[in-house]
Amino acid sequence: MHAEDKGINEECGVFGIWGHEKAAELTYYGLHSMQHRGQEGAGIVVSDGSQLKAHKGLGLVNDVFKHANFSTLQGDVAIGHVRYSTQGAKTLENVQPLLFHSQKGSMALAHNGNLVNAYALRSDLEEEGSILQTSSDTEVLAHLIKRNGNEVSEETITEALNQVTGAYAYLILTENQMFVALDPHGIRPLSIGRLGDAYVVASETCAFGQIGAVFEREVLPGELIMIDHGGLISTRFAMREQRKMCAMEYVYLSRPDSDVNHVNVHASRKNMGKELAKEAPSNADIVVGVPDSSTSAAIGYAEESGLPYEMGIIKNRYVGRTFIQPSQELREQGVKMKLSPVRSIIEGKRIVMIDDSIVRGTTSKRIVQMLKKAGAKEVHVRIASPAIQHPCYYGIDMSTREELIAANYELEEISNLIGADSLAYLSEAGMEKAILIDKTIHQGICTACMTGKYPLPVDGPKKPFYPACEVL
Ligand code: SF4
């Protein structure tokens, strides 16, 4: 399912490499493997030890770097970014990494996540005389680091990080140092790998596989890492809180071949399907998953229930995310082009349709209709995560509360609205059981969009689109 159909959009992906002569090219491949985390813009900043050079643009990684001359991006250190704008307009100046120059040197900044106090900090900075170039919340950190004309160092970054609140994974590059930081709750994923002697950092471990790097470890909540020619130094800039990894990374956002906080995404989705089968069995003939993000959960549901898993819906891989859908009629045509029912499998069957989540419900309705039109006798919808009833403030772009179907209707009503013969969601306990597999590792997940239990206070009154919310 494409993100624009689902109504959930990943926030961004970051990639960094230290100590490889082909740093820019490898960053390109790393970003390419994380294209699903942002399709609006991409960029790379490379350092040759004396100068930072950038190439960035709007669009997909391939499009942005189609005409890039990598011979001008020489250097053995680089950071890169794929962007989906959760904050800030879709303009070139907001495409990251952001690059800043001063008499004391240059700094590039790539950010995955969302600062919940960005609005207040921005106001303070503007009152003090700062002029911000972008509408992105990422720029705020750069101004905090340089506020007193200071050099970029472990001390100034630590001071700045202690002023921001929210979900963040930062990569900061100067001419001769790279800094890596993760928020004290570790809401967004960030891992370190090795490629020979080079250090590699990425939002998702699938990027390591892409370039032949080997996973080394997770960046820890509240950790600040400094890499330079002397090696890697780890410090802690804040008290480490209980980890609150975004549950939606497992449910929908991350690639199935990625490991998020030591748990493989495919395995966790399959477990969610199994738990769902235990909690919400169904009298049906076959199990069908909505491709691609629900396939793992559908396999799990089939395995646990003993029902056969069938490829009842096929996804057309060549319909791009940029497909233009200006009207409702064409939008419906768009889903028809993306998903096709396999009539010979569906006709006359009672189907358990597995989907990873429902946001607005419009796409679920169209898929149920599509299956019934193709001859399905019954369609029982089973959702492999708890109902989404609350917005996300930590970097995932979801619909507003008014648009979230589960925030406005009861289960039975939703089932009727999407035209299903029955509907059930996985419970919160079932999801936790499926994700938190290895109890020996410090684990914990954010479930705020499903439960309303926000692990971090949200800066309510100062920003109209940050309403007050329950704080754990
Ligand atoms: S609110 Fe939902 S989408 Fe946002 S970080 Fe928490 S689990 Fe992830």
From TrEMBL:
Family per similarity comment: In the C-terminal section; belongs to the purine/pyrimidine phosphoribosyltransferase family.
GO MF annotations, alphabetized: 4 iron, 4 sulfur cluster binding; amidophosphoribosyltransferase activity; magnesium ion binding
Cofactor note: Binds 1 [4Fe-4S] cluster per subunit. Binds 1 Mg(2+) ion per subunit.
Residues annotated as catalytic: 12 (nucleophile)
Listed InterPro entries: GATase_2_dom, Ntn_hydrolases_N, PRTase-like, PRTase_dom, PurF, PurF_N
Pathway given in the UniProt record: Purine metabolism; IMP biosynthesis via de novo pathway; N(1)-(5-phospho-D-ribosyl)glycinamide from 5-phospho-alpha-D-ribose 1-diphosphate: step 1/2
UniProt protein name: Amidophosphoribosyltransferase
E.C. number: 2.4.2.14
Enzyme class: transferase
Residues reported to bind [4Fe-4S] cluster: 246, 392, 446, 449
Function: Catalyzes the formation of phosphoribosylamine from phosphoribosylpyrophosphate (PRPP) and glutamine.
One BP term from GO: 'de novo' IMP biosynthetic process
Gene: purF
Cofactor(s) for this UniProt protein: [4Fe-4S] cluster; Mg(2+)
Catalytic activity: 5-phospho-beta-D-ribosylamine + L-glutamate + diphosphate = 5-phospho-alpha-D-ribose 1-diphosphate + L-glutamine + H2O
